[in-house]
User: Which sequence fits this backbone?
């Protein structure tokens, strides 16, 4: 059944009748990134106004692959379980050349994590769940059909002109966060450009509804017989919806390819019959680009407005949620009195994250869509060898799927005897704790995690779970008897020691932006 | 470190075998064979530092490792 797009109520904005006081934070865009940020801020006690130019969730499935880290973030925001319940859980990907499998990967070979490697779930469901959650939070004021038409940044605020069905009004925001997507109007109004690469490649992306017994796996084909010389992807979503991506090449006419009479025969060749309903289709161009900086005075960019990548790797939506993770707690702290310089750490860390996503995405794109000549020569050599030599299989690149980056926290206290997986800069690895999970126990504040050791008193919440084999493997390793971990509100490890006193913890906390 | 001194016992024999592998191939087929061969040999070497030296030598620049003072 097609998704039931229910319009959200449009209320008359207060600013139409009388001037509004300056808002601490205004978020532009009620997509997954804007909504997640608003919830993160509201959960930290910060009031937020969210402006969106329409009043329905995402039209079309768009982002469908939500990574383990995104699910953990969504869980912290109160919608993880709903996404898990509705989504199609998967962890195995298969890559084919012509009609033979050449590569297979298992994204989560390790047990003892609350969240799976990935769930597939249409963006409209994620947005629906986030809107439901946001509407439970009195600190969030979502204004649908409120379109920003002008932005005037000043030293300590941004002034916005907002157009609504009832007329236009002006508001001021101490901080304006642009979560308004790849074509970000706010970015345009500030005259900022992306740097990076536009690849000369077009893909058809189509969702079809059909009854089929297809496994919950990601299947990718190079040069399949049903779509000669090009690439194809098949992915299962809830509600019997299947995502099909077909490479079209740069010569394809996007307007012509958008028409159902062109799309239907292509899909029929993939699935072998005509017993399906076309739910949504789009044509897109590959690009890997970003803003040089994500913080511009009072205006902050997060998600696709800040950086875009080609889609095979699920690094767009997931990268955007990681922006939220890195921004939310810092922006909340700044609104509550921390120095604004804390936001430079957001800028620095997410540029790092964006560059890693762009690097992976660019490499996958070059493999999938090689230039004629030597790129094509080596791509074909890898595919040819992959069928008969194991070593070539990991070189087959149909997209390297999103994982959280490890931030380079230079100088953060560390102990090399402790396991690499939980080193400073990495997201704290989950593990079962009692009847629940470690990441849920950590919550959303700075926390001391004490594993087999006594935590020094530092005015912080302490989590001291009984030491299990999994906790030992992930937090102590074979050598250490005990360890103290300082965990940031975004669940990133800020510092760790085998033994630490109060002064050491306070110093690391200050360095991580946890006291001011 | 990349071995750049003679290391193949029968250089003439190997050279002949290399040409023999290309016999009957057109330019595109030969290029494809060379690409496969490079990948196979690169995997056998495995060591990224050695591969980087080989890439530099093939491009006609002296390898970084040769120039850089030992740390």
Assistant:
């Amino acid at each position: 059944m097609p998704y039931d797009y229910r319009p959200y109520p449009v209320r008359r904005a207060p600013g139409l009748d009388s001037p509004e006081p300056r808002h601490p934070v205004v978020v532009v865009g009620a997509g997954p990134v804007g909504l997640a940020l608003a919830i993160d801020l509201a959960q930290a006690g910060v009031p937020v106004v969210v402006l969106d130019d329409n009043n329905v969730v995402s039209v079309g499935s768009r982002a469908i692959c939500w990574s383990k880290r995104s699910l953990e973030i969504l869980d912290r925001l109160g919608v993880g379980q709903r996404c898990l319940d509705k989504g199609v859980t998967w962890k195995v990907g298969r890559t084919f050349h012509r009609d033979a499998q050449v590569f297979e990967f298992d994204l989560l070979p390790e047990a003892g994590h609350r969240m799976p490697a990935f769930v597939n779930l249409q963006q409209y469901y994620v947005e629906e769940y986030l809107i439901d959650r946001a509407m439970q939070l009195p600190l969030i004021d979502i204004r649908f059909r409120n379109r920003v038409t002008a932005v005037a940044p000043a030293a300590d605020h941004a002034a916005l002109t907002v157009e609504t069905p009832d007329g236009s009004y002006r508001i001021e925001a101490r901080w304006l966060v642009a979560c308004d997507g790849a074509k970000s109007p706010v970015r345009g109004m500030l005259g900022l450009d992306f740097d990076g690469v536009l690849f000369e490649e077009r893909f058809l992306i189509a969702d079809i509804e059909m009854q089929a017994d297809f496994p919950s796996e990601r299947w990718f084909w190079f040069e399949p017989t049903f779509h000669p010389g090009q690439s194809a992807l098949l992915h299962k979503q809830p509600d019997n919806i299947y995502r099909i991506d077909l490479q079209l090449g740069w010569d394809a006419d996007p307007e012509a390819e958008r028409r159902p009479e062109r799309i239907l025969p292509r899909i029929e060749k993939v699935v072998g019959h005509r017993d399906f309903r076309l739910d949504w289709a789009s044509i897109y161009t590959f690009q890997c680009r970003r803003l040089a900086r994500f913080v511009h005075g009072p205006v902050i960019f997060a998600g696709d407005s800040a950086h875009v990548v080609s889609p095979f790797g699920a690094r767009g939506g997931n990268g955007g949620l990681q922006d939220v993770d890195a921004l939310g707690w810092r922006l909340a702290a700044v609104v509550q009195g921390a120095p604004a310089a804390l936001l430079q750490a957001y800028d620095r860390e997410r540029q790092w994250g964006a560059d890693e996503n762009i690097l992976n995405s660019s490499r996958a794109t070059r493999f999938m869509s090689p230039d004629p000549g030597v790129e094509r020569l080596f791509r074909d050599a890898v595919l040819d060898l992959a069928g008969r030599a194991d070593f070539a299989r990991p070189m087959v690149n149909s997209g390297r799927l999103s994982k959280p980056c490890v931030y380079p926290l230079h100088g953060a206290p560390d102990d090399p005897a402790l396991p690499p997986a939980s080193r400073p800069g990495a997201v704290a690895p989950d593990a079962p704790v009692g009847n629940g999970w470690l990441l849920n126990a950590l919550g959303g504040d700075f926390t001391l995690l004490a594993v087999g050791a006594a935590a020094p008193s530092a005015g912080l919440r302490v989590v001291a779970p009984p030491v299990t084999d999994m906790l030992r493997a992930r937090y102590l390793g074979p050598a250490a008897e005990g360890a103290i971990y300082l965990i940031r509100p975004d669940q990133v490890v800020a510092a760790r020691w085998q033994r630490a006193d109060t002064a050491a913890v306070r110093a690391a906390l200050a360095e991580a932006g946890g006291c001011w | 470190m990349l071995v750049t001194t003679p290391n193949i016992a029968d250089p003439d024999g190997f050279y002949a075998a290399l040409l023999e592998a290309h016999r009957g191939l057109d330019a595109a087929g030969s290029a494809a064979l060379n690409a496969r061969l490079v990948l196979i040999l690169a995997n056998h070497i495995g060591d990224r530092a050695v591969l980087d030296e080989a890439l530099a030598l093939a491009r006609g620049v002296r390898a970084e490792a040769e120039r850089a003072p030992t740390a």
